[in-house]
Design brief:
Layout: H1 26-38, H2 40-43, H3 59-73, H4 81-93, H5 98-104, H6 111-120, H7 124-135, H8 145-152, H9 162-176, H10 181-191, H11 193-204, H12 208-223, H13 229-238, H14 241-258, H15 261-266, H16 273-282, H17 286-296, H18 307-315, H19 319-327, H20 329-332, H21 336-347
């Protein structure tokens, strides 16, 4: 990419589909609509709600969670509830831990609700794996979520039942090989005119923040800035200019908003700091670019793009260094970078539609 990282080697083929990122998918509209059902106890509370620990549930807590899910589903039309349940279950069973996380964490209390949805929607392979997983915990599904978790782990990183852990891992791999439940839900929307009439306006009417999030989520995976600096450089250089500027700024912004500018330099996002400066200048944000430049100037020359080298240097500095780097946050945390990314995407006609 002109003006950003340069590398001697030719750029590798990109692993992402930039054309696909131009279209805002129905899966995102469905995911957004299902968010409250993924955490029903937070969104559909009861006036008489007793206190319970959602991270360590006994039978009473599980009943409250399921009651909250029922209250949430009741706020939607009957025809829509099955696709929303599939979307919620997709969320509960995805992620790094897959079905293992589902069975030992609080979402496991929704097993019967999930099975009812899968059976009703004609998804026997998914349902069979959930039933197989439940059987691993023995009679009465292990008793409670708190007891299921306690059998699996001590809560401090030690696995208590290695055989159960391995079986859940194998089950997770088999579940991942099945068609994603979110895709199954979207296919049902496409086949039902009433659902299409409901969801297409939600998809086409998504706001700019959601569209930018979809674009940058795809670019984040494409760039993989956790890799070695030279590999990151090659992938960044292979992106079109607007895409490269947006993802460099987005990664840095995400770390800054999660913590501070100090965190953005300390973590893997720091590999992109010089590229962020150039992108911010191109986005007509000179004040923000200058702040990041002041941060870069606090490091040795040439700037250490390697994360371990950068962290080693930072670890040798005093509190004044940390404070000065963190204080740069106030110069960039004003929302202008976010607006500039949207404007850049619009100008390049790459904001998903």
């Amino acid at each position: 990419m002109v003006g950003l990282l340069s590398v001697a080697a030719g750029p590798p083929a990109l692993s992402c589909d930039l054309d696909a990122l131009r279209h805002y998918p129905m899966t995102k509209a469905l995911e957004n609509r299902a968010v409250p059902l993924r955490m029903p106890d937070l969104f559909f509370t009861s006036d008489r709600r007793p206190d319970f620990d959602r991270f360590s549930l006994d039978a009473a807590g599980a009943a409250e969670m399921r009651a909250a899910l029922a209250r949430g589903l009741a706020t939607f039309a009957p025809a829509e509830r099955p696709v929303l349940m599939l979307a919620a279950l997709d969320h509960w069973t995805s992620g790094a831990t897959g079905l293992k996380g589902f069975f030992v964490l609080s979402d496991s209390v929704f097993l019967e609700d999930a099975l009812q949805a899968l059976d009703a929607e004609g998804l026997p392979a998914h349902a069979a794996l959930l039933r197989e997983g439940a059987a691993l915990f023995g009679p009465d599904y292990g008793g409670s979520q708190a007891r299921r978790y306690a059998r699996w782990s001590d809560g401090h990183g030690e696995i208590r039942d290695a055989a159960l852990d391995a079986a859940l891992d194998r089950l997770s791999e088999r579940f991942r090989a099945l068609p994603p439940l979110l895709d199954e839900a979207v296919a049902r929307i496409a086949r039902a005119p009433d659902l299409t009439a409901l969801y297409e306006p939600l998809r086409s009417g998504a706001d700019d923040d959601d569209r930018l999030a979809y674009l940058t989520g795809g670019l984040w995976t494409c760039l993989n800035h956790y890799d070695a600096p030279a590999a990151v450089a090659a992938r960044l250089a292979a992106l079109p200019v607007a895409h490269a500027r947006i993802i460099a700024v987005r990664i840095f912004e995400a770390e800054m908003l999660n913590g501070s500018v100090h965190q953005a330099f300390f973590n893997s996002s720091g590999v992109l700091a010089p590229d962020v400066v150039e992108a911010l200048k191109a986005m007509n944000l000179p004040k923000h670019a200058a702040a990041i430049e002041r941060g870069i100037a606090m490091f040795p020359k040439p700037y250490p793009r390697d994360t371990e080298a950068r962290r080693a240097f930072m670890g040798r500095q005093n509190e004044a260094f940390d404070t000065a780097l963190g204080d740069l946050t106030g110069d960039v945390d004003d929302g202008a970078m976010h607006a500039a990314m949207i404007a850049t995407a619009r100008a390049a006609d790459i904001l998903p539609r």
